[in-house]
Automatic annotation (TrEMBL):
Annotated membrane topology: Multi-pass membrane protein
UniProt main location, coarse: membrane
The UniProt record lists the keyword Transport: yes
Residues passing through the membrane, by range: 15-37, 52-69, 81-104, 110-131, 143-162, 168-190, 202-222, 228-251, 272-295, 307-324, 336-355, 361-384, 455-476
Organism: Streptomyces abikoensis
Positions of the Major facilitator superfamily (MFS) profile domain: 15-479
Protein name: MFS transporter
Gene3D superfamilies the UniProt entry points to: MFS general substrate transporter like domains (1.20.1250.20), Multidrug resistance protein D (1.20.1720.10)
Keywords linked to the UniProt accession: Antibiotic resistance, Cell membrane, Membrane, Transmembrane, Transmembrane helix, Transport
A Pfam cross-reference name: MFS_1
Amino acid sequence: MSDLRTEADPRRWKALIFIALAQLMVVLDATIVNIALPSAQADLGISDGNRQWVITAYALAFGGLLLFGGRISDLWGRKRAFVTGLIGFAAASALGGAAVNTAMLLGARALQGVFGALLAPAALSLLAVLFTEAKERAKAFGVFGAIAGAGGGVGLILGGLFTEYLNWRWTFFVNIPFAVVAAAGAISVIREPAEGRNPSKLDIPGVILATLGLVSLVYGFTRAESDGWSAGVTIGLFVAAAVLLGAFLLVERSVKAPLMPLRVLTDRNRGGVYISLGLAAIAMFGLFLFLTYYLQVVRGYSPVKTGLSFLPMIAMMITGSTQIGTRLMTRVPARWLMAPGFLLAAAGMVLLTQIDLDTSYAAVILPGLMMMGLGMGTAFMPAMSLATHGVQPRDAGVASAMVNTSQQVGGAIGTALLNTIAASATTDYFKSHMAGATNPKLLTFQSMVHGYSTAVWWAVGILSLSALVALVFVNANPGGGPAASSADGETAEDAIPVMAH
């Protein structure tokens, strides 16, 4: 592939701006709607039973279709998939902002998930083919990793500002300028070589099995949160997910052009990254939820003040990713950034287990958030880079999709699992202290805080496991040194072509 290794595209840094803008839009959308949900529910008359579907409709479509979106990206070309995803996401956001009833809002959220599943893997795989020189790749993925890590916190801030000072509809409308600018920029500056495409026929059985399997898995955790882990529907969904995903793996071994080539999954480094990122997402998504409720319900913070409370964490994420991860990625193996990063974030979570009814933000919550941000930023950057390291150009889309899939499924698991743990601990604490209670309202708050603290301890354990997985399985250095071999025998240098004029 030496004929492809020509001079790098001079517009690649401009392209990074628009790719990062699109990534920010997708990531912040996962949290921006959460804070606005109570206002939207009251305005549209959404029932309590249907309220969760505003979040679930997006998660099901996004998580279920990511592998399909990654394969379409390889088939169509990343630029076309990227621009199509942006335009579709903007249209779905406009529909959501203009919603006049429950059905219209839920439909818009599902459409956002569909186009997000096309956009997200296209964005990451574009980076993989645009930046191949070690130091440039480190800087590019540093920016991307910082945005991926901090976008959720930005969503909380914007959600609070829009809900308090404008209207919940702006949590949807804000996506439109993001998408328009990113699409216009992508059309004008991104150039992608046709050699990177995968023209093989689409694996229809694989698409059906993977989509239904992932939807069953994500929906199973959603039902576990509302109905309980032992409910018949919950168990049935988990059994269905196991059968469908097992059948998917069997099909992928036998078809000529698989949706998910097993060589992408069986590479020890990529497999380690997918598992560690999924575990980290379990811990992070659950913590965001508990801390938001703690600050608003127990401490009485406004939506804006709650969002601003996360700002130091976002600043440290950006610092960890762009200043620590980027500078060290070309000098030390990825495992020595990922494992210590996740452990530092876990130590920050240990501080947050100490919360009480009158915990000082400056003394406990602030340092905990800053440690988490610094650790996650440092770990995310090499993980994002390594997820596409050494992969063949024709597989870049599905390899990128697996990063988003692991985080999306991890987020769904984290929300359901840790919420269930917190609810159970809250109930047990309330029952055991009810007899001697003189102030029922105070006991309610104390029970809630105990539940949050218990769940965060679980998150500490899960994040520590993520660090262990990174330490054991990840042995490549995506930033420099000897190129690690990919699963099918190519070095990273052979596998990813440099962009030509």
